[in-house]
Specification:
308 residues, DapA-like, eight-stranded parallel barrel, TIM Barrel, globular, alpha/beta
């Protein structure tokens, strides 16, 4: 069984895509191959059923099946499971299944509703109570997707009041100052440390690492870029980490287009042999012939740049 996440967890927890067949069925063979692909590129762990994993298009039974396939294939590599759901019962059922199967923790985003911090605070207390004290939690802070901005002060308060809230998935944009504020809080005696992994495809990863982030929890079709950037930074080679990461920026930027970017990521994963089909589940984006030619050109330019 994999080790559970803690307040010092770091590295790269790659956000895993969910492979589908051209008919829209979950492709479990490709899912196993994808786990091997990520593990082969040195990721610290996996995060499944996130927003880019198309979990909102799956039935409860399909989500459980994905959990089973990934955890079985990961063979001890830590797996965090996104369990966000409009219904508390659905959330806790999936979280219970994931933890029983050996998940390292669960990820929860604020529930849809008015953008009031008292409501968000109450929600996370309710989630923590429903899950129990032994389920490590990741707070997914992604205001661009949820429409719910959350202050550093509230995140710190929840982290201090809820012992099981171990980690922040930081995806505020712009949000570098939020990382600085959270790390400054920890200089106060008695303030518990919070693991911070960053998202947004890693667009700002070098700067976020310099602000005190512990690594990345995001998706990118070139996971080795994230892994090596974090490794260089940890080794104290800050400029080398940024120079290395910069080589991947053109295709990473292209992959970060809202909505459309998922189709780009899946196409690249398919071309790299990680999955059999680039299909997204309907309703989802599809690449035109022009789009594909564009992506292929970016891939070729990256290969040339890396070879040089």
């Amino acid at each position: 069984m994999a080790q559970r996440i803690g307040r010092d967890s770091g590295g790269v927890f790659i956000i895993a895509a969910t492979p589908f067949t051209d008919r829209g069925e979950i492709d479990h063979d490709s899912l196993r191959r994808l786990v091997d692909f990520y593990a082969g590129h040195g990721v610290t762990g996996l995060t499944i059923l996130g927003m880019m994993g198309e979990a909102n298009k799956m039935t409860p039974e399909e989500r459980r099946a994905v959990v089973d396939t990934v955890i079985d294939r990961a063979a001890g590599l830590p797996v965090i499971v996104g369990v966000s759901d409009a219904g508390m019962r659905n959330l806790t059922d999936l979280a219970g299944h994931a933890m029983d199967r050996g998940a390292a923790g669960v990820m929860v985003a604020p529930a849809a509703g008015p953008a009031r911090e008292d409501r968000i605070e109450g929600y996370f207390h309710a989630v923590a109570q429903a899950l129990g004290p032994d389920v490590p939690m990741v707070f997914q802070d992604f205001p661009l997707a949820t429409g719910l901005p959350v202050s550093a002060a509230l995140i710190r308060r929840l982290s201090s009041e809820l012992p099981q809230m171990m980690m922040l998935k930081h995806e505020d944009w712009p949000g570098l100052s939020k990382i600085t504020a959270l790390r400054a809080d920890e200089e106060t005696p008695g303030t518990p440390r919070l693991s911070i992994l960053v998202g947004n495809g890693g667009l700002y990863l070098p700067q976020e690492l310099q602000r005190g982030a512990d690594g990345a929890m995001t998706g990118f079709a070139y996971p080795e870029a994230l892994v090596q950037t974090v490794a260089l930074h940890r080794a104290g080679q800050v400029d080398a980490a940024e120079d290395f990461f910069d080589r991947y920026l053109p295709i990473l930027r292209h992959e970060q287009q809202p909505g459309f970017g998922l189709a780009v990521r899946k196409h690249v994963l398919m071309r790299r042999g990680a999955i059999a089909s680039a299909a997204t589940r309907a309703p989802g984006p599809r690449l035109s012939a022009t789009d594909i030619a564009e992506v292929e050109r970016l891939m070729a330019r990256l290969e040339t740049r890396l070879a040089a």
